[in-house]
Amino acid sequence: MADHIRIRKAPGKWVVRAGGAVLAESANALELTEGDYPPVIYFPRADIGMAFLEKTASSTKCPWKGTASYYTVSSAAGDIPDAAWSYEDPKEGVAAIKGHIAFYTDRVTVEQL
């Protein structure tokens, strides 16, 4: 793993909300910190209402984490394109985030309970 990336169990319970609905709630989320960027919370798929997410054709590549796949979030307020992402096959150093999805905090609400 790159020296500037750290992954740990996120303390406490975390929730994702969009359009008034709870999309995810987890006591098993991971916190990834990368350099000077704000921490990102990754939620286990088992703790996400996957019916609210639809995979898109979008993808990006990170030299340290691998290729990210994106998801549109459906909410009562409408669809939020590419509001979540996942590393389906992350690089070895960040393998802990496999099976997890993160959300853009400027598009949905991610908060610690």
Automatic annotation (TrEMBL):
Record domain DUF427: where: 15-105
Superkingdom per UniProt: Bacteria
PANTHER family reported in the protein's UniProt record: BLR5716 PROTEIN (PTHR34310:SF9), DUF427 DOMAIN PROTEIN (AFU_ORTHOLOGUE AFUA_3G02220) (PTHR34310)
Name of protein: DUF427 domain-containing protein
Originating species: Roseicyclus persicicus
